[in-house]
Amino acid sequence: MLLGHCAHARYMWNLCVEQESQWRPGRGRMPGFADRCRQLSEARAENPWLADGSAIVQQQAIRDHAQAMAGFFAGTHRRPSWRKAGRDEGFRITQVRPGDVRRLNRSTAEVRIPKVGWVRFRWSRQVPQGVKSYRVNLDRAGRWHVAFAAIPSPVPAPGHGGVVGLDRGVAVSAALSTGELLCCPVLTARQRQRKRRLERKLARARRGSARRKQIKRAMARLRACETDRRKDWCEKTSTDLARRFDVIRVEDLKIRNMTCSARGSAEEPGRNVRQKAGLNRGILASGWGQLVRRIEDKAPGRVEKVRPAYTSQRCSACGQIAAGSRESQALFRCATCGYADNADVNATRNIAAGHAVTARGGDGVTRPVNREPQPCTPPAA
Q1: 337 with 315: CB under 8 angstroms?
Q2: Half-sphere exposure (Cβ direction) of 374: Cα atoms closer than 13 Å
């Protein structure tokens, strides 16, 4: 019955997408939410299989599409696309009454779903008061989730004026100006070996066979494990930073542009495509965007984005910039004053100071914008 609700919600969503794709200028006004709800009532009267489903589920699918289109026109989201069975499984329920959620014991509770009845779920945290809607979805690993819509209160600032710089990388997922190096957890060596075996089995399995579905489900469980670990790390790290510091400065990175494919076209093929694909996987596996997004949610107004130009080539001690100062991925040694430190930590201190750097001038020398270089002392013999 839950899968039936998912199918009805997906069907209504795809009908809305079809209407949007067929509309052309000069054909009149596109039906809004109220018009589509009236069309839904007529369709339910003509189709018994549609009337057997929940009207709340079907109406909320229409409302979700209307909100998605509003986000598209506002420029904050992409245009809504088609939903596919087995990949986009979920529905939303509104008009939640106080008695629709009840706790059974320490770790178990129940929620009332229309046309289904009471469904038991694991009580992972306290459901906030005044919740008016929740969403039920099925992931590719075969796990059902229920999420209650509530906006949590922001994490209070400590109030001591502390500022921290955050540098994101691949070898080190997050480096702090305090000297801490944080790494996002990934699959273990044994799990990676199992994943490679499953990929080889998947390549040999016949399309549409039950064995292929079983292998894909096993691979989805491994990916879900990695995703859960990354999400848990981002949640804990963002909460810790929001509690410890008043101002958090990060680089203003365009992650979507940085992870674009280098394949190119048949006429102009790209170079180092496999190396670039591996780098893209490393960037996405480190959770760059998710970490900063959760920090902004938990510490609103306390996150500042700094221009990333030359932050890894600038010496945090004297302010001089030289490409040769970064000897390797992990070592920074200033060519002017001899200051040596971890390359990521040196970059985070530049980010914490909030120094934006201009491009190279006409004399070929790069100078900082808002800080004069300090006098340098030659390194000791």
Answers
A1: yes
A2: 11
- The amino acid at 37: C
Q: How many CA atoms lie within 13 A of 213 on its CB side?
A: 5
Please enumerate in sequence order all residues whose Cβ is within 8 A of that of 61, keeping only pairs 6 or more positions apart, or say none.
8, 9, 10, 12, 13, 16, 91, 92
The domain locations on the chain are 1-151, 163-303, 307-381
Catalytic site residue 167? yes
Report how far apart, in Å, the C-alpha atoms of 360 and of each of 73, 165, 204, 322, 364 are: 38, 24, 54, 11, 6
Q: What is the pLDDT of residues 226-254, one digit of tens each?
A: 999 999 999 999 999 999 999 999 999 88
On whether the CB atoms of residues 96 and 132 are closer than 8 A, the answer is: yes
| Given the residues 64, 89, 296, 344, the one annotated as active site | 344
Question: Two tokens at 65?
Answer: 């599409």
Q: Looking at 64, 89, 167, 296, which residue is catalytic?
A: 167
| 3-state helix vs strand vs coil in the chain, percent to 5 | 40, 15, 40
HSE-up (13 A, CA, CB side) for residue 206: 3
- Which residues on neighbouring strands pair with residue 119, listed in sequence order? 111
341 counts as catalytic: no
Q: What is the pTM of this model?
A: 0.82
Kindly provide the residue ranges of all beta strands, DSSP E only, lying in the chain, ordered along the sequence.
89-94, 101-103, 108-113, 117-122, 133-138, 144-148, 163-168, 174-176, 181-182, 247-251, 303-306, 331-333, 340-342
Structural tokens at position 34: 């109220």
Within 10 A of 181 (CB to CB), how many other CB atoms are there?
17
Contacts 24+ apart (CB under 8 A), 260-264: none
267 is catalytic: no
CA distances from 235 to 165, 230, 322, 334 (A): 18, 9, 36, 35
> For 168-218, what is each residue's pLDDT tens digit?
989 899 999 999 999 999 999 999 999 999 999 999 999 999 999 999 999
For residue 182, list its beta bridge partners. 174
